[in-house]
Amino acid sequence: MMWPVKHAVSVSLNTQLRVYQFGEDAAALDLARKDGVRSLLGLIVLLEKHRPDEDGLCERCATDDRPVWR
Q1: What is the separation, in whole angstroms, between the first and last Cα of the chain?
Q2: pTM for this structure?
Q3: Cα(32)–Cα(14) distance, rounded to whole angstroms?
Q4: How far, CA to CA in Å, does 70 sit from each of 47, 51, 64, 65?
Q5: Which of 4, 30, 32, 60 is 20 to 30 A from 68, alpha carbon to alpha carbon?
Q6: Over the stretch 3-15, which tens digit does the pLDDT of each residue have?
Q7: Cβ neighbours, 10 Å, residue 16
Q8: Cα-flanking dihedrals φ and ψ of residue 45, to 5°?
């Protein structure tokens, strides 16, 4: 089962990707100016919260159930 927010983000990113790849130039430009900026800002926040330490490990990703992210 996918969480509703994760599903919504996934659908939005897939839609953006299709428009950027196959859409008209004007539609891609309009989408980039609106949703593209929001997507990039979200990625920047994600990367800030998952900054690796000096060993290249992410503390937020480490749990007992899964290994740390490198």
Answers
A1: 26
A2: 0.64
A3: 13
A4: 13, 10, 16, 16
A5: 4
A6: 888 888 899 999 9
A7: 19
A8: -65, -45
